[in-house]
Specification:
The complex is a heterodimer. Chain A is mainly α. Chain A is built from eleven helices and no strands. Chain B is α/β, with parallel strands linked by helices. The two termini of chain B are 32 Å apart. Classes of the chains: A mainly alpha, B alpha/beta.
Amino acid sequence: MSGSAPGSTVGQEPETVVVPAAGEPDVEAPASARRRRPWAGYAVMPVLLGLACLLLLLWLRSKELDSIEQRLVNADRIRNGVIDHVKLTVVSTFFVILVAVPLGILLTRTFARWVTPVVVGLANIGQMVPSIGVLVILALTWTIGFRPAVVALVAYAVLPVLRNTMVGLQQVDRSVIEAGRGMGMTKRRVLTRIELPLAVPVILAGVRTALVINVGAATLATFVNAGGLGDIISGGLSTSRNTVIVTGAVLTAVLALFVDWVGGIVEDLLRPKGL
Amino acid sequence: MTESPPKPMKEPMIRLEGVTKRYPGQDRPAVDSIDLDIPEGEIVIFVGPSGCGKTTLMKMINRLIEPTAGRIFIQGEDVTGVNPDQLRRRIGYVIQQIGLFPHMTIAENIATVPKMLGWDKARIEKRVDELLELVGLDAPAFRSRYPKQLSGGQRQRVGVARALAVDPPVMLMDEPFGAIDPITRERLQNEFLRLQAEIRKTIVFVTHDIDEAIKMGDRIAILREGAKIAQYDTPKHILSAPADAFVADFVGAGASLKRLNLTRVSELELSYWPTLPLGTDRAEVLSLLRSSDKGSLLILDGQNRPFRWVTAHDIDRDDVPLEEAGLGPGAVVGPEATLQGALNLMLDSSHGAVVVVDGQGSYLGAVDFATVAQAIQSMRREARDQLRAAAVELSDTGGMATP
């Protein structure tokens, strides 16, 4: 990283915000530090997650469920909950990428250096304001359902992708860029052929973080009637049924770990060769 | 090679006219109104202490840094106003860190500029292989490797190949061998000089290492603070007649020794050394030895090749046949050897002289201390005369300009 002006500004942001939930503490480590895993390594996580689901199922089977529990925890509700939850996560992450990556590119261009602290500050606010608060405000001032839930999730998860996009672009070796410019590559060509491909691993690490954050935050979508596994958890809370709460919580955790696992594979596949 | 810079050269490949770079907020310009002609097919070195503006000056040629004032001509065309990206595609560019694209194969790296110029695939492929062979890398083995898999020296070669991709007439090289270990650097320098003898590019080469400048340069521009040219001349002239104290100081101690590295044995008048053919009888050998002031003489074999050194003491001994008296011929040098190499051998030899032979190994003459001392003297004299002549010419033309 040959430090350029905004590098220092970004460096002042709280470090903790980018640390992904699933333990990827060194976002800024060079991408080459992590090697492609052997294929057997990929199999461990799904096996563990399958085991967790199986245990949950056996545990539920071993219990006498009362009528409230049966109404709250059944195949239909679980399926719908998971589908809604995945929808919320995927759609919000899609918009996060759509907003954060171009913004990150823009903010690392020389001409935009002066707005960088402002925008990063805004993204920080998005992360710091509790999602539940955002949801409530949106529900009161706008509407309820899927859309406000997505808006709240996007606001919450923009920062890691934005930051990683900027860091990823800034860590590209200056001499590589200079060589490209010196050979007559236009600025746009340097960006698309050199900077972005070389930043892909770091950007993807940010996307993976955003995904995991969103799986967690999407449990709150239930409060604006947007469905998801939060329905099961809050149903259990309001009826004081621990079995239901545990079921919802375990499923959310399994989903978060599964999404992180998929993200890891995608990262490995999309990492440019030669790094 | 021998003309001095104030003389107008025929069409220079690159001409700088009043090139200036001023950064906002600095009262002194980084580069102050430079005029410089760079002749075709030569390596011109910009050398100077760090911060003297040599890199800035070089980067203004391909307009990675835009000059504040002045004009730059390449092949007679004013390039100060053309599209900089288009301009750079016809100027090779090599930097110290090489800057290979790590996510692209060697072939893709080399193909960067040809692709931008829209060459077809077959032509690019052919050119890549050609270039890899040119810089001494086995094309089939290296084409599809990634930069990470190469050593520093190999990467630098790829960097040079990439810069040569579309056969640009001009190359800019910013300390290209700066980050490489001394042994590899030496090898790459020699290789590059061989390559340059073949391709005859016009090269602007920036370094802070005066020894590299002397070795690589056809001409050297020694720059001082503010990119002012302290002296622009051939390495020989700079070493023999530094223009001022700054240059002398920058060239450093041992200028004469460095100068010896630039002179070939063939440029000298060789010393006379007494020789006799093999089979001459003892009495004759002894009489020649006594009449000569050298103390030893050289016996030549049937093909006129140096055979043995003998002294009077060797001849006096009756117990050894004449063929085995004295010492073997020791080190010999060819006419293309540098004077420094010859001097080095001379210091090691027991006779204070080194034998010079031609390509067939036949005796040509000898180099001794007197030869070397004389050579240094005449270099100095020659350089001084030329400086003086140049000064006279300058004042002459100055007088003519305002009649």
